[in-house]
Amino acid sequence: MKITASSRFTRIAPSKALPLARLLKGLSVAEALRATAFSRQKAGFLIGKVLKSAIANAENNAKQSAEEFRVERVVVEQGPSLRRFWSRSRGMARPVVKRSSHIRVILTND
Q1: How far apart are CA 65 and CA 58, in angstroms?
Q2: Which residue ranges in the chain fall short of pLDDT 70?
Q3: What is the pTM of this model?
Q4: Is the dihedral of CA 100, 27, 32, 20 positive or negative?
Q5: What are the backbone angles phi and psi of residue 54, rounded to the nearest 5°?
Q6: Three-state secondary structure readout of the chain
Q7: What is the pLDDT at residue 85?
Q8: Which residues pair with residue 7 across a beta bridge?
Q9: What gap in Å lies between CA 40 and CA 38, rounded to an integer?
Q10: Residues 57/104, Cβ–Cβ less than 8 Å
Q11: Quick one: which of 101, 49, 105 has its CA closest to 75?
């Protein structure tokens, strides 16, 4: 059985969240929670929130214990970007792109 949870429009660049997402693949739920809790990155906090939501979905909707599940995948996709400009000399502007991402955690008990 697959359980999913997602967080959309999260203000972190996908390139910064992907390395941690790759680390969590195949870990048990307890190990993945521990890995996100001890990560000093912003991505650790955000992926940890989605992981806790997936655990709650497993316990409430599937009526199964969370210890039976493993992290099948953590998907970090690119969301919309906020486009801003910094003013520069001689009336020029420098673009600033603030990227966002969609984070999805998929748990399985197979």
Answers
A1: 7
A2: none
A3: 0.90
A4: negative
A5: -65, -35
A6: CEEEEEEEEECCCHHHHHHHHHHHCCCEHHHHHHHHHCCCCHHHHHHHHHHHHHHHHHHHCCCCCHHHCEEEEEEEEECCCEEEEEECHHHCEEEEEECCEEEEEEEECC
A7: 97
A8: 103
A9: 6
A10: no
A11: 105
CATH number for 33: 3.90.470.10
Contacts of 14 (CB under 8 A, 6+ apart): 76, 77, 78, 99, 101
Determine the residue type at 14.
P
CA distance 36 to 7: 16
Contacts of 54 (CB under 8 A, 6+ apart): 3, 4, 5, 105, 106, 107
Q: How many domains does the structure of the chain reveal?
A: 1
**Six-digit token string for 25:** 């693949």
pLDDT at residue 84, rounded to an integer = 97
Domain with 100, as residue range(s), is 2-108
